[in-house]
Structure prediction request, 1132 residues.
Amino acid sequence: MKASVIVFPGSNCDRDAAVVLKSVMGHAPAMVWHGDSELPKSDLIVLPGGFSYGDYLRSGAMAAHSPVMREVVSRARAGTPVLGICNGFQVLTEAGLLPGVLMRNATLRFICKDVLLKVERNDTGFARHYQEGEVVRFPVANKDGSYFADDATLDRLEGENRVAFRYCDASGAVTADANTNGSCRNIAGIYNKTGTVLGLMPHPERLADAALSGTDGTKMFASLVEAIH
Amino acid sequence: MKARITITLKPGVLDPQGKAIEGALHALGFGSVDGVRQGKYIEVEVAESDPARASAEIERMCEQLLANTIIENYAYELDAA
Amino acid sequence: MKARITITLKPGVLDPQGKAIEGALHALGFGSVDGVRQGKYIEVEVAESDPARASAEIERMCEQLLANTIIENYAYELDAA
Amino acid sequence: MSGAAGAAQKAEAISDELVAEHGISPDEYAVLLKELGREPTITELGIFSVMWSEHCSYKSSRVWLKTLPTTGPHVIFGPGENAGVVDLGDGLAAVFKMESHNHPSYIEPYQGAGTGVGGIMRDVFTMGARPVANMNALRFGAPEHAKTRHLVAGVVSGIGDYGNCMGVPTVGGETNFDARYNENILVNAMCVGLIDANRIFTSAAKGVGLPVVYVGSKTGRDGIHGATMASAEFDEASEEKRPTVQVGDPFTEKLLLEACLELMAEDAIVGIQDMGAAGLTSSSVEMADKGGVGLMLDLDHVPTRETAMTAYEMLLSESQERMLMVLKPGVEPIAERIFTKWELDFAVIGKTTDTGHLVVRHGGEEKADIPLAALAHAAPMYERPWVPKPKQETIAPSDVPAPDSILGALEPLMGSPHLSSRRWIYEQYDHMVMNDTVQRPGGDAAVVRVHGTEKGLAISCDVTPRYCSADPHEGAKQAVAECWRNLTATGAKPLAITDCLNFGNPERPEIMGEFVGAVQGMAEACNALDFPVVSGNVSLYNETNGVGIPPTPAVGGIGLIDNIDDMTGIALKSDGDFLLMLGEQTGHLGQSTYMQVMLDRLEGAPPPVDLNAEQRTGDLVRTLINDGAVLAVHDVSDGGLLVAVAEMALAGGKGVALEAGPDNIPAHAAWFGEDQGRYVVAVSPGKAEAVFRAGADANVPVGALGTIGGDTITLPGEDALPLATLRAAHEAWLPDFMAQG
Ligand SMILES: Nc1ncnc2c1ncn2[C@@H]1O[C@H](COP(=O)(O)OP(=O)(O)O)[C@@H](O)[C@H]1O
Ligand SMILES: [Mg+2]
Prediction:
């Protein structure tokens, strides 16, 4: 399996993603600089977390116009799996690969902590190692993590079963209290129509190592390796 | 020419920053303040002296980058630079 | 009355946002763009129909909260709401 | 020499007022004239003023700083470089330093604190290290003070936004509230980096005819006179004529970090120095002085973002996110390619010379020509008069009123501004990025795994200002000991410290006495604990209208854990385990949090630190951790024993059934006394006997405290205190306080 991690100026979870990919794939992913218009042959493209262009203007907005993104968009449209984590999710929405936008957290503050997520479906390449309805723990670390879309879009997302994860409590209940950043309908991550593009605010790559007090994130990468093989 | 662009959230889109500012103004004793909304203001100079062409260029900038038209509106004024 | 307030960085103060936006506009092909500066835009309604008193109130808000006058300037326009 | 500079000087007469405005005293000016052999130009006056400022020259503190122990077998670089460097074994080293950004943070909390973080990270990556952890030590005024909330909000988000954007985890710190910081908050930031021990870069510009290169952001008129401002006492007027504050650009700094590390992997750099306070002036003087060369700068090549900047302005600008480098000859194209890729400015602005002078040209004119020795070695150094602070009486435990019930007092203590949870702060900091934070904030020291290894770096920031205020000597000793103790509590071997010495006006003998006492106390503790000082920073004149801050010698220490699998945290783990206390107990209540919160009194001598006992106890605890004998460890600090137990209970979500305290000490003194050198440990029942025996062998008292289990804290004869109640009180204060704005 060949994976590529896109590095934008200001990306800062690129190494973290690469370390986890290496541990599950057995070899390192390609690190692709945003200015490259060439993208190596990839079975998986990861847009990592960070502050591309400082997240000045709007999070992810400037990165969405990077030269390499044209190629990412066309690969995604052709079916290559794309995973956008945190800033990567913001880039995916700004690039039009996923609907909606990530707005300032309801608290207006940056939030870094572990959150609980309900796995809404497990029939995608990203989630086959999870159970549907399973509660998993991933960290969030963002200031602009509040998912927003108009009601029609939200209804469509739900109707097409495209919500990937929702913020929930320990029992799996999707409550207002669990919705740390004020996202519409507690949405933490969504898929494109075909389930091959996933954008999510929480960081699966941050709890994919026993020394870091959790491994719920490992399953996402292991799912991908299995799905792609 | 110089363009003064204001980018505001569409009506109906929640504006937590505006709400926080309103709360802070109330706390400071500006009790009558209402309807606070926060947006962005961007100044840009374009090497274009024809107002129509300058407008067209500014609009393309707003559509492509400066505003996210899912949630934001934009408006601008042009000055001769 | 409704006030439309723009808050901008004082001339000479570094504007990292403006600089980054300018770079992104250049990369998008808006090569002639220059002097990009980013500021804030705030709309406020005050329960005050006298323009002079409304102005005085807006100015106090700007001084006390909305602008950091060490690095920022503010300007505003009043509309009858 | 200096014909042109001399001529320029005639055009601009240097008046006495101008000299005074530059913070140069008449005596200092006389030295300047003698060193230069003529009147300075205005540009030269500016250069002298920043180089001879307190901030750059350490003129009041230098004589005393020399008395600190700075060497040890694992010290690679002590003070004098951009940051200290200690050996971690296996070819790796840690680079770290702490610095203040106090006045800027008071004036503009968000930008002031953010640029402080940016500055300290540059100090670390200038040496070739990748920053891996940030810490911050914050002192705010009283919660009741009108400005406090605004300052907390701005400082915390400024620190967060800068470090978060850089992708360097902010893993811990400390936070105090005290009315004596009302007008003078302290923002001390620490950064720790990792480096290959044989690829360390220094600032020495050795070699003649080498290119001097400017990289990073463009220069603007930012913070001109910031360095002199940081050394001058505040008064009400200065709040009015507020100097420009710098705006930070963490995005550009992130690019600068990556570009510098990329260039450092090539064989291209002779010397490199960040442009911090006093910008181009101090960086160029330092590089030339350390390299024993002269320097010629042609300011026409300096990238500027404003028009018509003068030589004076360019030399004194404190624009952020810039670096100065001296390169090997011929490698400029390699460097330029890297900096262009990262979209940063790159310019050759001068060369090294054999003149021993700093020569500055601008617009075809010679603006300055100064012998470097005059700037660096003729800098003023004062032995300021000082008086020792009178010692306070030790308060007997029996003279301190007891509460109605012990557990009844625990709740208000844990919910007070002084002991409440700092979660509201550290959740605004990305403390996990880089995926090596194996011990997150909330415990004693934070622990960051040494990337790609099993080793861990423990990091802690400590000082107890109320102790230092009562007795600077004993208080500074305590700061070092507490830091050593926090590192030890994770199982780490403490290696070395950095410090940030925050004081009032050193021209007042009482303040200078506080400084001297603190340095002596630090030195004593560092010597006794083999815990040398490898870097640091002094911030004086933290006073407004003659009211100074409490002496605040902040200490930032690092320690090494050989294998993170052996590390301990504060969280209680299993029901049925025993809780023990190690260390000596007398029930010292003077200057305690108990007196402060429950009685609204801060009196008496602070608890003394017995450095021999400290070492014995700490060494025993570390051995027990390494042997796997203890499962959770927490040192006893603010609030005393019961607070330590409560923090362990909350962290693990497990209750504790405590036994009655010793009968020779009043109960409130036993539970809330702040005797030093103590730890609480959790052991499985099968290991308890061995711990008692090890204590006896090591001459360390070990006492049984109670048994872990349930969801309450209980004491014989008192109502049980539910953990949920305690947690609510502990977690509520800071968010509630901040929400009132
Ligand atoms: N300003 C801050 N930033 C980040 N973490 C903080 C800050 N202040 C306190 N903390 C964290 O809160 C916890 C408690 O702090 P403190 O009571 O000072 O610990 P100790 O008494 O062990 O030195 C520590 O883990 C510390 O890192
Ligand atoms: Mg501690």
Chain C touches chain B at residues 2, 4, 6-8, 18, 21, 24-25, 28, 30, 32-48, 57, 60-61, 64-66 (CB under 8 Å). Chain C has one domain: 2-79. The helical segments of chain C are 16-27, 51-66. Chain C has a mean pLDDT of 92.
